[in-house]
Amino acid sequence: MYLMSIGAGVLVGIIYALINVRSPAPPAVALLGLLGMLIGEQMVPIAKRVIAGEPLSIAWFSAECAPRITGLHAKDKDAA
Predict the structure, then answer these.
(1) Alpha-carbon span 40 to 50, nearest angstrom
(2) Predicted model pTM
(3) Domain span at residue 28?
(4) Residue 33 and residue 40 in contact, taking contact as beta carbons nearer than 8 Å
(5) What does the radius of gyration of the chain's CA atoms come to, in whole angstroms?
(6) What is the mean pLDDT of residues 11-19?
(7) What is the pLDDT at residue 78?
(8) Per-residue H/E/C for 31-69
(9) Could you report the per-residue pLDDT of 44-80, keeping only the tens digit for each?
(10) How many DSSP H helices and E strands does the chain contain?
């Protein structure tokens, strides 16, 4: 895991150099990068679901992906 983390950091450093952004990046650029990472992490479960032939639905996305992107947990249906 540590090697993958440093590899990802090196890759991001190369990308920053190519687009001429110095690290640490300006706050807006850094936050957009973090948002992109969160969204990118959710591409894997979506791809696995598509490959398995399972349907994608708004309900599934809202329950499985959205909380990981936004940090907000879906409300329990029974709690209402």
Answers:
(1) 16
(2) 0.54
(3) 2-70
(4) no
(5) 17
(6) 85
(7) 46
(8) HHHHHHHHHHHHHHHHHHHHHCCCCCCHHHHHHHCHHHH
(9) 899 999 999 999 999 998 888 888 888 887 565 444 4
(10) 4, 0
